[in-house]
Amino acid sequence: MADGSVENLVGWFRTDLAIEAAEMVAVSPQEEIPGVKVDRSEDNGIAVNRVSVLNQEGQKRIGKAVGNYITLEVPGLRKRDIPLQDRVSQTFTRELNNMAQFTEEMNILVVGLGNWNVTPDALGPRVVRDLLVTRHLMTLTPEVLGDGYRSVCAIAPGVLGLTGIETSEIILGIVQNIKPDLVLAIDALASRSMSRVNTTIQIADTGINPGSGVGNKRMGINRQTLGVPVIAVGVPTVVDAVTITLDTIDRAVDKLIKQNPEGSKIFNVLEGMERDERFALIKEVLEPYNENLMVTPKEIDTIIDDISIIVSGGLNAAFHPVIHREESTKYMH
Which of 9, 116, 253, 278 has its CA at 20 to 30 Å from residue 135's CA atom? Predict the structure, then answer.
């Protein structure tokens, strides 16, 4: 942490969000990180964070690949606000369109990563289930669709434990056969903050590493491995138990010390420890129960259904201009 690099932090906190990696490195929100540009805007309850990793210096600082990361933060999604969900879907469509720069003749392959048998990891397959796929229609009966649709196909390849095959190997085989112009991968992510779980959507043009959210990194799905541009869409659905415990202890110590300045010996000891020392202590205590213990909200079933509808609706509108026009017209009246 002393050198302003994420290298001393990655052992502490598990996060797939570029905005969180930048926040951990920056001493204050106003501090500039060499090689990293961060912009934030807010509109009607939707915060849009843009993190650009400009060079290798920035990559080293925050531990994220050179590229662009857009994060939509919407705390109100926890309240099942339908009009808000619609606005989020529209904002997601706009940001994805700006990043992908879709062309009329573009062929798109959507990959829903994750295990459909495990709810916190089922986002990718759920989104694929609700997509409007058109590649077969354009090949066999193009007159059925008319104008305003692009060629879209999709697959939910499962996980290594279900198939015995590396997910990236499955996708590479498909890419080599159907030759898409763009691959869009959807996956569940990990956050270091419970407040961002299921309220945040990240879009990145750097690809993705399946399983990274639960500390089980597989071969990357990116332009280098597939030979075509890859955009990753992810939603954090879990938090590392060690991180939650550390945050809880930090807050408890601060509160109890304020209430009782003299304090007790244990709280005085904890207050005097560096944060990395606290983290190491908690990790050691939890290790017998499983070092990779992840936590997710109890209402995860409902949340995954809601967020998958937001993402799939946004993708359908981004892929097919006729749907985007219909959605835009609907919100004008």
Answer: 116
> Tens-of-pLDDT digits for all 333 residues of the chain?
334 444 444 445 678 999 999 988 876 667 789 999 999 999 888 999 999 999 999 999 999 999 999 999 999 888 888 899 999 999 999 999 999 999 988 999 999 999 988 888 999 999 999 999 999 998 888 777 878 899 999 999 988 778 888 888 999 999 999 999 999 999 999 998 888 988 999 999 999 976 554 455 567 899 999 999 999 999 999 887 777 777 677 666 666 666 665 555 565 666 666 666 666 666 666 665 555 667 777 788 888 999 999 999 999 999 998 886 655 444 333
Task: Report the CATH fold assignment for 6-242+293-332.
Answer: Rossmann fold (3.40.50)
Q: How far apart are CA 149 and CA 135, in angstroms?
A: 10
Domain regions of the chain by residue span: 6-242+293-332
Tokens 């929100």 identify what position?
Answer: 29
Dihedrals phi, psi of 109, to nearest 5 degrees: -110, 125
234 is written with which tokens? 């992810």
Write out the DSSP string of 183-232: EEEEEEEEES-GGGTTTEEEEESS-B-TTGGGT---S-BSHHHHSS-EEE
- H or E segment and range at residue 201: strand 200-204
Would you list the DSSP string of 306-323?
HHHHHHHHHHHHHH-HHH
Tokens of 45: 């309850």
- Residues contacting residue 52 through CB under 8 Å, at least 6 positions apart: 36, 37, 38, 67, 68, 69
* Residue found by looking up tokens 């339908």 in the block: 82
